[in-house]
Amino acid sequence: MFMNRDKLKAWLESSDYIDLPDLYQEIEEKYSLYDLIDALREIKREHGLTSRLSGQKTQIENLVYQSQELDIESQLEYIVTQSDTQQRGHSVSRYIQSTDNHRHFTPKADIVMFGDSITEWGPWNEALDYKIANRGIAGDTTMGMLKRIDTSIAVKPKLVCVMAGINDLAQGYGVEQVFANYEEMLGIWKESGCQVLVQSTLLVGKRLVALNSQVNDLNQRLQALCSQEGIEYLDVNSVLEKQGMLDAKYSCDDLHLNAKAYRQWLVLLKVRLAKLL
Fold first, then answer.
1. C-alpha angle with apex 66: 62 to 67, nearest 5 degrees?
2. Mean pLDDT score across all residues of the chain
3. Strands, E, within the chain: which ranges?
4. Helix 212-229 and helix 175-191: axis angle, to 10°?
5. What is the rounded distance in angstroms from the CA atom of residue 218 to the CA atom of residue 200?
6. Averaged pLDDT, 152-161
7. Which of 97, 122, 138, 170 lies at 20 to 30 Å from 255 by C-alpha?
8. What Rg value do the Cα atoms of the chain yield, rounded?
9. 231-250: per-residue pLDDT in tens?
10. What are phi and psi of 11, to 5 degrees?
11. Residue 197 has what pLDDT?
């Protein structure tokens, strides 16, 4: 369990809204942020509290407010369609704008970090003594990465470090499809003369644990392919997993990594980079 429920209740009563980052940091033993939010909602219901869980209104809250004069059926349809439009538009616009920047700004780099949000949010430039081109885009899949693989080649890197696949699996794409996309990417880099380091797709935590059997399957295939083709492979899970899943101390949401996790990853990566570059 989290903190004493009375203390959580006191947080809710202390202000018109909770500062979730501050509250999460105050909890000594780390749990999923999603579990904390659920606990706060439960306490709100039990005690009839009206404190907001954040000072910022969520997308759903705004849509409910905008549709409050509609009947229930129309309101539901409005919320579903507008939520889909906003989420899809946000995701696609980030992809378009990020890829556009990556194609127009192509400084020569030693290393390209290629992947999704786990790559995009990594402290590569701060932690590594190489010229890094960060080509991670949050929410991206291996299909999207194939479409923008030219952005990894344009900077003429000595090495491409790739990690991908978890978004594909979370969206219901099978391991076979993800692996086929990986094979195609590796083939393109080989033809372009790029040296590649495949980094294991990361295991996820308790909230998403159903994906881990597929993650393990994908990693086994990738490791075998790399061995067969003479491609470097780095098992990042070896320093981040606990009992077959992402250790809770390395993430607040069972998926994305905190600084402690990146430090562990970088210990492995720096050793391999010293060998390859």
1. 120
2. 94
3. 111-115, 132-136, 159-163, 195-199, 232-234, 241-242, 245-246
4. 30
5. 9
6. 98
7. 97
8. 21
9. 999 999 999 999 999 999 99
10. -60, -45
11. 98
